[in-house]
Each structure stands twice: as structure tokens, then as C-alpha cells.
Amino acid sequence: MPKPIYLFSISSHPAAISINSLDIAFLKPDINFSKYDYFIITSKQASEALKQYEKSEYLEKKALCVSKQSAISYEELGGVILDIGGGYGDNLVEKIKEYPKEIKWLYLRAETVASDFVFTCKENGYTIDEAIVYKSECSQDILHAEIEENSVLIFTSPSSVECFLKNHTISTLAKVIVIGKTTAKALPKEIKYIVSDDTTIQSCINIAKNL
To answer: Is there a contact between 199 and 179 (Cβ–Cβ < 8 Å)?
Structure first.
């Protein structure tokens, strides 16, 4: 009998028991979009937050996106993609270094972020401003979820791991799949895990189905 698959994410998938990991609150800081050449977008929530502004203010700005999924979210607004990273914030450093230091970037970010790529880029002389456009907290769904021990657990962000571990432990019978290396770092050191081939939920599901 196949193991139940639990997906801890703000997105869902029909092949899994989808448990919302975070409650998102969107913020609307005052932003002078005309000051910037390009956006940096590392989540679909950043694109969702942009919906609070007039499209005419920002839509001509191309976006450097961390992954295919974050790029899709900006394209759905009508935006144009400048480039796509390898799925991890740390990978964006090399992408940004491909552009002149005179470029003015705006990073549309969460209140809490896992990568310090902005600090690294600034240390190297690049101009990146940051606008906190959303914040999150652990959802009641993940805090009080009932999880079978002999199951597959899919974590899609460091925060999904951290929220799960507030009220749960990871059973030794469970198989753990993470969407990327940054998420893996949030796991307890003794936990064995599998990193998905691509930074997509579908990639995680494909692995889970074969366990």
C-alpha cells in the first residue's frame, strides 16, 4: 500500500494531502518604482503583492526571478522576465554579476528571508534596495495537522519545516523530500532527506510516488 504523501506548502497538489504551511499578510510600502531598472522576485507572493499597485507604475520593469515558478507568477501579471535563476537565492549572485554595477535593482521580498544574496551583492558594489511586501506566520493547519508516521513529507521552504517542527517531530518511519538545498538546511541534522531534481512541487511529487 502506498504511503500517504503530505505536502507542506502554500500551494496544493491533487496527488498529496496538501497542508497550508503559512498565512500570508500583504503589505503595501510606498515605492517609487521609477527609481529602479529591474526587479528581483523570489516568490509568487511578491507578484501577488504587486497587484496592490497600479500596473502602469511598474509593469515595464523586467524581473530577475529565482525560479520558473516565480517567473510564471510575474508573467501572469503581464510582466517581462529578464532572467531566471537556478531555484536558490544564493544562485542569484552570479546572475546579478552579469549586469553593470550601475543597474538599480529592487528586491520585492518577505519580512524574513533565508538567503543573504543581497548582502553579498552589496559587498561587491551592486545597488539593491529592498521592499518588504509581505510577511507570514505559521498557519493553524500545519501546527495542528495529524500526520501518519509511515508517510512521505514534502517541505517546500525553510519556513514550512520550521512551522512543522513547532508542534511535531519527524518520524523515523517517514520519508522526507525537500524542494531545494536551502529548505534542507532547516531540517534537524539527523534527518535523512531527498532533494528534488527541480525546484518545483511536481518534481517532489514525482519522487514521492516512486518511494
So the answer is: yes
Q: How far apart are the first and last CA of the chain?
A: 11
Q: pLDDT, tens digit, for every residue of 112-144?
A: 887 889 999 999 999 999 999 999 999 999 999
Which residues are CB-contacts of 210 (< 8 A; sequence separation ≥ 6)? none
CB atoms within 10 A of CB 145: 18
Q: Do 51 and 144 reside in the same domain of the chain?
A: no
Contact assessment for residue 37 and residue 61, using Cβ atoms and an 8 Å cutoff: yes
The alpha-helical segments, DSSP class H, found in the chain are: 44-50, 55-58, 68-77, 92-96, 117-123, 140-143, 158-167, 181-184, 201-209
Number of domains comprising the chain:
2
Three cell numbers at 53? 499597485
Question: Do 61 and 104 sit in the same domain of this protein?
Answer: yes
Provide the 8-state DSSP code for 74: H
Is the domain of 32 the same as that of 122? Answer: yes
pLDDT at 198: 87
Q: Which three cell numbers mark 51?
A: 497587484
Nearest to 43 by CA among 26, 60, 57, 19: 26
Quick one: 37 and 88 in the same domain?
A: yes
